[in-house]
Design a protein that fits this description.
The chain has helices at about 40-50, 55-70, 90-100, 120-130, 140-155, 195-205, 225, 230-235, 240-250, 265-275, 275-285, 290-310; strands at about 1-5, 10, 25-30, 35-40, 110-115, 135-140, 160-165, 180-185, 205-215, 255-260, 310-320. With about 325 residues, the protein is an alpha/beta fold. The chain has a domain at about 35-220 and about 235-260 and about 315-320: 3-Layer(aba) Sandwich (Rossmann fold), CATH 3.40.50.150. Strand 5, helix 4 (about 120-130) and strand 6 (about 135-140) form a beta-alpha-beta unit. The protein binds S-adenosylmethionine.
């Protein structure tokens, strides 16, 4: 492992198969933020069927901007929408708060945020619970690098927010060293899921808490037809609720609590997009071809329908490492 920037370490990344949650397959033609982004159909096929961690990195390098354009912020999750929520940023902050409360961050000290993206959630948790020592872990080096300025700007003293470029399936951390392992909307990419769960168990202290937030299917789906356009654009693993529970139980996690919050996620997010489509579309078209926006729109509409029909859901999970029992 080598230190390459203030507080940032590189650990070897093992490339296994993972893909994006709601994704469009694009290839940037240049890093200049004013240039249009074009799609490479061969990459589309490779990324759809090969699905390794390299693909996840490429896709987020390209697609994070769609999220940023539509939300105006730096978080890459769907958010939690209440009657009062005015927009995606508020929804994302709400999801982070709910997740932070669920995992009892007020009683923690050393935590890792696995699949930290642009570190938006970690910055929020650190702002609320200043005593936390947080390590942001992601396979995407660019995202970790980009989050550095933000951490410095918002948190001033960034000493206790570290960044680690590593995969969740081989965590370069010591046994029994952490109070919390958090994975906010990243578990759907992790494969094999068992490796991440066992790694979490290994690095957690006894009584430490593992928290997960992820899109799921309610039952194992055997037919791509059921998901429609989402079978292409929701291209991460489609883990089902029973499977998640069985992996946690088999790994000897205790006090497993699960809550389905899909109705607070998909339909309100889709409604927001539908209501604001004209203005959001304009912003997206400044950077992406128009069919990208069309696919995004159709995916959101399908997502809403599947959520209302109980095919897809969004799961919050809390469980404990309790080796005493
Ligand atoms: C949907 S984003 C969520 C980011 C952040 N948690 C948030 O809410 O803003 C998923 C993130 O998980 C990361 N990721 C995917 N697979 C991973 C893995 N196996 N190990 C570590 N990070 C991973 C991706 O690079 C991406 O940054």
């Amino acid at each position: 492992m080598a230190t390459i920037a203030s507080g940032m370490m590189i650990a070897p990344t093992i490339f296994s198969t993972n893909l994006l949650s709601i994704s469009l397959y694009l290839l940037p033609i240049a890093s200049d933020s004013n240039l249009m982004i074009i799609i490479n159909p061969i990459e589309v096929l490779l990324w759809t069927f090969r699905r390794n961690e390299k693909d996840v990195v490429k896709l987020y390098n390209t697609l994070s901007d769609v999220m940023r354009i539509t939300t105006g912020g730096d978080m890459l999750n769907f958010g939690y929408w209440t009657e009062e929520t005015k927009g995606p940023l508020e929804a994302q902050n709400e999801l982070c708060k709910i997740f932070g409360n669920l995992t009892e961050l007020q009683n923690a000290k050393n935590i890792i945020d696995v699949g930290s993206g642009l570190s938006g959630p970690s910055i929020l948790w650190k702002t609320k619970f200043n005593f936390l020592e947080i390590t942001c872990i992601d396979i995407n080096f660019n995202q970790l690098k980009e989050s550095s300025n933000k951490i410095k700007k918002i948190l001033k003293n960034s000493v206790q927010v570290h960044r680690l470029n590593a995969t969740s399936t081989i965590l370069p951390l010591m046994d029994n060293s952490l109070d919390r392992v958090l994975a906010l909307e990243s578990v759907q990419h992790m494969k094999p899921l068992e490796s991440f769960i066992l790694e979490s168990k290994r690095v957690l202290k006894n009584n430490g808490i593992l928290g997960l937030a992820l899109p799921v299917v309610n039952e194992k789906i055997n037919s791509a037809l059921k998901l429609g356009i989402l079978s292409l654009t929701w291209s991460s693993q489609h883990y089902d609720v029973d499977y998640i529970k069985s992996v946690l139980t088999n790994s000897n996690f205790k006090k497993i609590e699960m809550e389905k919050i899909g109705s607070k996620v998909y339909a309100p997010l889709a409604n927001y997009y539908i209501e604001n489509r004209n203005s959001l579309r304009k912003k997206i078209l400044a950077k992406y071809p128009s069919y990208v926006e069309k696919i995004l729109f159709k995916s959101l509409v399908k997502m809403k329908q599947l959520s209302e029909n109980n095919v897809i859901d969004y799961l919050l999970v809390k469980c404990k490492k309790d080796d005493a029992n």
